[in-house]
Design a protein that fits this description.
With 372 residues, the chain is an alpha+beta fold. It has two domains: 8-138, Creatine Amidinohydrolase, Chain A, domain 1, CATH 3.40.350; 148-371, Creatinase/methionine aminopeptidase superfamily (Creatine Amidinohydrolase), CATH 3.90.230.10. It contains ten helices and 18 strands. The longest helix has 21 residues, at 148-168. The chain is elongated and about 70 Å long. The protein starts with 7 loop residues before the first helix and ends with a strand. Bound molecules: zinc ion (3 copies). One zinc ion binds at residues 240, 305, 332, 334, 348.
Amino acid sequence: MSSVPFTTADYTARMSRAADAAAEAGLAGLLITPGPDLTYFTGYRPTAITERLTVLVLAPGREPVMIVPKLERPDAEKAAKDAVAFTDWTDGQDPYEAAREHLSPDGRYGISDAAWAMHLLGLQAALPASGYVSLSGGMPMLRAVKDEHELARLEAAGAAADEAYHGILKVPFAGRREIDVAADLAALLIEHGHSQVDFTVVGSGPNGANPHHEAGERVIAEGDTVVLDFGGLKDGYGSDTTRTVNVGGAPSDEVRAVHDLVLRAQQAGFEAVRPGATCQDIDRAARKVIDDGGYGEYFIHRTGHGIGLTTHEPPYMVEGEAQELVAGMCFSIEPGVYLPGRFGVRIEDIVTVTDSGGRRFNNTPHELGTVH
Ligand code: ZN
Ligand code: ZN
Ligand code: ZN
């Protein structure tokens, strides 16, 4: 069940679309450095991201050119040879001088968020009149709309994470440390085809009230409510799902009520998904349910984030993000309530925008799970 490989035509189309979008945004071009952006545009993933400058220059009306260290040129050419032109620099040479001839001296460029500061500073020194904006800030939609092959990968990653959830319901919780359950979750993600595990949050009892608690030495007890949030990359694309479970299956009335509220908030966020709605509409829809339920002050993060080649990327489902949803976008809807010192509840699905609404890539039961 391997997915359809991306082709040179795919990469070429992505690069020319991005160059056009850069021009529309008033930029001289885009500077793409190793990481998810370079993978997206060329398929090239250097074996190590190092201090040696590698940068792809995308400029409207010009052939894409990748500036690479000479010793890495064969690898880069192997990955991307039909889609871009290459130029190289050797150790002992100034890479920023090498890059200079491909850039306009007073151009304003969008640059990958993941570019090392030393590279940006080197470019600024070589081209003192140039200017830069971050890609996520300047062009949040650059990788946001997925094609059918990307959607298939994200759907498969979601299904694999769902399998991991079914698996984790069968392992013992009571009497074991959070990190032991987290290790089980990581193993399940790998077993179901993930190549990389990005996070395995096991927030038991009071630790569940910290949304980014990972997992620690706390020994899980009977009666605890446990937030399980896990994901990573499968076939290069991300999964990210959260379910909340109770150890022993006899939760307090308050845990039950809070969980029901978060479940209804997650559903309201999902039902707000349609082309033309805005990112902040999704946040508002979910937040309204929790506000109306009286727990608004305990929902302390945005409702969601984009997902694709990484597990967290723009645009964000947050107040102030007026970007309209477009069919093919994929993002999380993950409202939560966090009661300090007591417990937390979060429910998270990855959702894609369809022509008529939304479709979930996570389909395990949303109800409070029971573990033992
Ligand atoms: Zn997060
Ligand atoms: Zn998550
Ligand atoms: Zn998430």
